[in-house]
Amino acid sequence: MSNSRRMVVYAVTAFHRGTEYGGVANIGFRPTIQERGGERLLEVYLFDFNREITAMMWRFDSSNTLRPEKKFENLSDLQAQIMKT
Question: Which residue segment(s) compose the domain that 67 sits in?
Answer without folding.
Answer: 3-84
